[in-house]
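Subject: Protein record for review, amino acid sequence with backbone structure tokens
How to read it: Take the token row as a discrete description of the fold.
Enclosed: The protein record, placed directly beneath this head.
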Amino acid sequence: MKKLFLTMAVAIVTATAVSAQDSDKEDKIVVSTHQTDKTDGYEGDSSNRCGIKFNFRLTGVTKVELESVDGLPLAGAATICKDVQGKTAIGDMAHTSTIITYSASNKSGFIPGKDYYISTLPCDLYGGYRLSIYRDGLVAHYFGVHQKVELGKFISPDDLVESELEFDKPGAPLVEEGRPKMDSKTHNLFVRYRKTPTEANKQALLDQMCVRYDKVVARKKNKLRELEREARTYSIVEHMQGIVDEMVQNRDTRIQQQFLRFIDPRRDENPKDAWMVLRGASAPNAYIGYAPVTNAEYAAFNPQFAYDAGKENYPVVNITIAEAKAYCDWLTKQDRKHIYRLPSEEEWILGAGHMPKDVAMNANHIESGLTAVDAYKQSTGACGGIDFWGNCWEWTTSTDADGQYIVKGGSWDSKRDDCRSEKSDDVRAGTQGYANVGFRIVRTDASKSMKLKL
């Protein structure tokens, strides 16, 4: 009898030990950083396997690289547990990586039209992910946003359009375009809204522009991750982090500005004059100056104003806010149809748009001082105007909490980063003129009552 009980006890202990081992296996998942189409790179309960599915029509694709632009873990070991609601969730992680490579076992590449599955850890990819596609010795980068990988599920890059992929040599700088080309989906929604301007079509277009904006942010984040790995000095990383933070913080405002500019139906009444349509502005029929006010233009208002010979087309500087407003009032009195004034910060940004990364401009001491307003006329703002960035700062009517006036666009002696359109922390005292601050003008339609006063 004792022998029987002893045998049963041993069996129970053994079964418990085996069960515990099985439980340990089932309560863990392991995802490899290097995967192929022959090995799924996954260990654990198959029902928990998750990741990204892709299916290319392109031939010659030999490798895909996946990265979370927010630096979240995609590969490594993780425990599976139950949350307070009894739902399956991810617990502790170890040996994690934010990058996964997935290679074709055949030299000719992945089979076109076939589904392939990259295993990942569960991950919130709402902020974005990079999918780099290697083909014929070149690489193209796709950025996805607003998606989440959950246990047991695979997501797909549903808005990836293979014909819109731009392939370049591996190692080539990943340049963030200042004004990305309009993709086919956005174009179709834009055309639909123009033809049928309903609220539903307007919202669909706005939603798509949010996606476009977040994809640009994802590219910036990816550049930040790259710099964190490769930059030799922290100041470079800090610089890019500041750009990303600003884009995230001001997301809604910037999207709204872009959207209003995008749907503004106005056309330039006279493309050859000095006034550009200020798309998205709330003021009636607003236009903005093609360039900052020049010495010659200001001297026509103030004959006592003197400047160096040969600098007629240089931006007028050393002008106070009151003097700039007096010039605007002078223009208004000569034109009964329009009102001339300084732009607000928002109007200035609408005119300039986002500053392209590699824009040519007079900044960072590339010149020894001011230049003519058309010296870098190949660089145009969103409205088509010139000299928005560098050369001289420009007054706006917007002020900070202390009543200081916000200036925009940077100057010849500014760092390139300080010239960015969205930078809003440079201010000056309006009662003083500065050797590197000029101004640009906005023109709006005069109301009937204003016309009578004029």
Summary: Residues 269-453 form a domain with the paralog of FGE (formylglycine-generating enzyme) fold (CATH 3.90.1580.10).
